[in-house]
Amino acid sequence: MITPELLTEIRGRFAHVEECPFTGPRVFFENAGGALTLKSVVETSARFAAIPDNQGRANAASGALMEIISKAKEDARAFLGASGGAVFVGESGTELLFRLIADACLGTGPGKVLGSTVEHPASRSACARWAEVAGKDYVQVPHDDATGRVTAEAYAEHVTPDVKVATILHTSPVTGMAMDVPAIAAAIRAVAPEAIIVVDGIQHACHGGIDIEACGIDGYVISPYKVFSRHGYGLAWASDRLTALPHDALKGGPAGSWELGTRDTGAYATFSDVVEYFEWLGAQVSEAPDPRGRIEAAGRAIHDHETRLTDAMLHGTGNLAGLAEMPGVEVVGGVENPAREGLVSFWAKGRPSPEVVSALEGHGIRVHTRKADHYSGNILDPLGQADCVRVSLAHYNTEAEVAAFLGAMKEILAA
Predict the structure, then answer these.
(1) What is the pLDDT of residues 147-176, one digit of tens each?
(2) What pLDDT, on the 0 to 100 scale, is given for residue 415?
(3) Cβ contact 31:342 at 8 Å
(4) Do residues 405 and 320 touch, judged by C-beta distance below 8 A?
(5) Are residues 139 and 114 in contact, defined by beta-carbon separation less than 8 angstroms?
(6) Which domains are present in the chain?
(7) Do the beta carbons of residue 104 and residue 219 sit within 8 Å?
(8) Does residue 348 surpass a pLDDT of 90?
(9) How many CA atoms lie within 13 A of 239 on its CB side?
(10) CB 127, CB 97: distance < 8 Å
(11) Residue 193 and residue 182: Cα distance in Å, rounded?
(12) pLDDT > 90: what percent of the chain?
């Protein structure tokens, strides 16, 4: 459990927890757009930015860089719960999803590509493009508008033996709902056992609880800036099966290599900082003797804390009413939804969401508008909504910050 004392210690490890470097004091509820950065990541980034040496050279500095990269890959496997497979960085999470999906579509025989309508355009766009190039049909499983998620049962209704590639969204950045990845993967494999399954874990990663071994998948992608690291890179895991398919690589280069050109050692090193933080947190909330056990314990503590915060946001805290009790407020995915992970999206009838977001900014509370555009139209259009307000939390947020948000909403809706 994250106690008040531990929460203070947690907040001390992050940069700009209470203030924006441009505007001053504020509550940060825009974590789905990019979580706060660990102070250790900031320090590591600066340290590695100053190192002139390159990888693959016959000197001690180069050897040290290679060791740091190797350690980071092992750290990432521990974080992801993967005993093997390839770990590599790229331009962004979106770019890596495109690469994995492209290789899966081009490297498998005739058949179908299966995804769902709840997915972010990073995977939907990649599937649409590369299915067409590969001459495959692209089928999207409809998600449930009322709950903001797609189920294994829904996938089971659409999977056929000729599915060669399948994609799953772990958590929606619009509805905030998590999908049951192991159950969905099992439903796919029950009918199409050889399908290459790629998971978009970008929104899920900061909420903990990734277990690739339990999922039976072939690819998993995250954006480290959404899990306490920095902008400028994405991180992917690929199974040996996916790695064995033809993919872009230098002629004569190492077999199985995914990386094109020299990568930033600092990117790898900052992901080790993230994993070390999860291990530290796990040690505060459990007696787990090994790194993976501590990472899992941290994930459970994060989930429980964020659930308490979202419950307070929905049902109120102290003498403040929650969003569920505020007149004219509608919550995306429903109020009582156990799949929710640290995020509440809503709209207020008769009030444009950008207006509400601006008013909250005036109260020192940073949230975000989601519009029915190429990013979120798949969720909002079926609901008949042009936009919504997204309030996204992380485990370093406090109930006092939730109270400040609810107090501001009370004033805004009364105005």
Answers:
(1) 999 999 999 999 999 999 999 999 999 999
(2) 86
(3) yes
(4) no
(5) yes
(6) 4-37+298-414 (3.90.1150.10), 43-276 (3.40.640.10)
(7) yes
(8) yes
(9) 17
(10) no
(11) 14
(12) 93
Residues ≥6 apart with Cβ < 8 Å to 369: 353, 354, 357, 387, 388, 389, 390
Alpha-carbon distance values, 93 to 50, 182, 199, 205, 219 (Å): 25, 21, 11, 12, 12
DSSP 3-state assignment of 57? coil
- Do residues 60 and 250 lie in contact, with contact meaning Cβ atoms separated by under 8 Å? no
- Following CA atoms 252, 254, 260, 262 in sequence, which dihedral angle do they give, to the nearest 10 degrees? -110
Q: Is 66 exposed, middle or buried (0-12, 13-18, 19+ CB in 10 A)?
A: middle
Pairing status of strand 219-222 against strand 196-200: parallel
| CA pair distance 212, 128, nearest whole angstrom | 25
3-state secondary structure of 99: helix
| SS3 category, 174 | coil
Encoding tokens for residue 281? 């947190």
Give CA–CA dist 253/170, Å, rounded: 33
Please give the Cα distance from 394 to 2 (Å, whole number): 12
Secondary structure class of 52 (helix, strand, coil): coil
Question: How far apart, in whole angstroms, are the C-alpha atoms of residue 236 and residue 94?
Answer: 10
Between CA 221 and CA 203 the distance in angstroms is 10
Distance CA 146, CA 158 (A): 20
- Report the alpha-carbon distance of residue 197 to residue 142 in Å, rounded: 18
Strands (E), 206-307: 219-222, 234-238
* HSE of 226, CA atoms in CB hemisphere, 13 A: 25
> How many Å apart are CA 86 and CA 176, to the nearest integer?
29
93-107 and 121-134 helices, crossing angle to 10°: 30
Count the Cβ atoms, other than its own, within 10 Å of residue 254.
8
pLDDT by residue (tens digit) across 224-283? 999 999 999 999 999 999 999 999 988 888 888 898 888 899 999 999 999 999 999 999
Give the pLDDT confidence of 271-322 residue by residue, as tens digits.
999 999 999 999 999 999 999 999 999 999 999 999 999 999 999 999 999 9
The rounded distance, in Å, linking the Cα atoms of 213 and 92 is 24
Place of tokens 């008013």: 359
pLDDT tens digits, one per residue of 54-110:
888 999 999 999 999 999 999 999 999 999 999 999 999 999 999 999 999 999 999
